[in-house]
Design goal:
Structural class: alpha+beta
Strand content: 5-15%
Radius of gyration: 46 Å
Length: 322
């Protein structure tokens, strides 16, 4: 713009040189404008501005266009090829927070890979966070295959010898542990009261049984009745006292049982578990024999619910073509 103004004024000077003298008012006005443009063009870049008249730049004259002063770039020293770089290398991935944790695990394994490990049977049993726990904690839809690879790295780091395991690995492993560790839970021992009774509780399906076992001659009462009176089926009678029969203690203990809920089969198997727990309070050495007989573990099986559109839990209506 300044060059075009200078060119127009120069052209006007040349054209008016022939028709007027240097002392005329028109010639003097054109000379002043030309000198003003020449001074502004020679000024430094920090103070250079554009004026069409030789007036003070600070003056505010109607019809006069004054350009804004140039910005000072002394305080902005940027590299000509500088660009913004994300803080995380996983910024552009689908699950950046999860991949940051995964990369930290890989870095730790690469750094401490030479440390000795202990056998798998001697490694402390730990309940790690599940896939759903990780998804809720990070707020990201982590794939199952990616979580499996991450969990493999966690278990590999956990197999390092405890005496040589660095603190940073312990901190990382603690972040993958569940808040409740079932493997560290210790079963509460069943006490024997002042009358020599041990109370065991057993459950099966919808049935719940409490069995009081005391040394005696082999009498068994279920809700105040004998086995033959309470259970009509022989299989249920044998199942109720299976823990005593499997350990040859059928005639050494007296049993009184209080059972409720469910049917005869569920009640009989609930009594089996209750008697086994009470029997272990008297003789803890019988646990291997009771475990082989299947009297220690609670049976979690239950009746499967009926589904809509089905005749029963899984049975579908008969398909008829027409």
């Amino acid at each position: 713009m300044m060059a075009s103004l200078r060119h127009s004024i120069t052209t006007a000077l040349r054209s008016s040189r022939q028709g007027c003298s240097k002392s005329s008012a028109q010639w003097q006005s054109l000379e002043q404008q030309f000198s003003a443009l020449r001074i502004n063009s020679l000024a430094p870049a920090s103070s250079r501005s554009l004026f069409t008249h030789a007036h003070d730049p600070s003056s505010n004259v109607d019809g006069q266009f004054i350009a804004a002063p140039a910005l000072s770039v002394d305080n902005f020293k940027l590299h000509p090829y500088a660009r913004a770089v994300p803080v995380s290398p996983s910024y552009f991935t689908r699950t950046p927070r999860f991949y940051d944790n995964y990369l930290s695990l890989e870095k730790l394994l690469e750094e401490y890979e030479d440390l000795p490990v202990i056998p798998a049977t001697a490694v402390e049993r730990v309940a790690w966070k599940t896939l759903e726990d990780i998804r809720k904690e990070l707020g990201e839809q982590v794939k199952a295959s990616e979580f499996a690879r991450c969990l493999a790295l966690v278990k590999r780091l956990n197999s390092i010898h405890p005496d040589l395991k660095p603190q940073e690995i312990k901190d990382v492993l603690d972040s993958f542990r569940r808040n409740v560790q079932p493997f560290t839970n210790v079963a509460k021992p069943i006490p024997i009261d002042q009358f020599g009774r041990a109370c065991g509780v057993g459950k099966r399906k919808a049935s719940s049984a409490r069995a009081f076992v005391v040394e005696g001659t082999g009498e068994v009462l279920v809700n105040g009745k004998t086995l033959a009176e309470y259970f009509g089926r022989v299989h249920d009678r044998e199942s109720a006292v299976w823990a005593l029969r499997a350990t040859n203690r059928i005639d050494k203990y007296n049993v009184w049982v209080k059972v409720e809920g469910g049917g005869t089969t569920g009640q009989a198997e609930a009594i089996t578990l209750a008697i086994a727990k009470a029997l272990l309070a008297h003789e803890p050495a019988l646990k291997p024999a009771l475990r082989r007989a299947g009297c220690v573990t609670r049976d979690p099986r239950k009746v499967e619910r009926k589904k809509h559109g089905h005749v029963k839990a899984r049975k579908m209506p008969t398909w008829v073509k027409r």
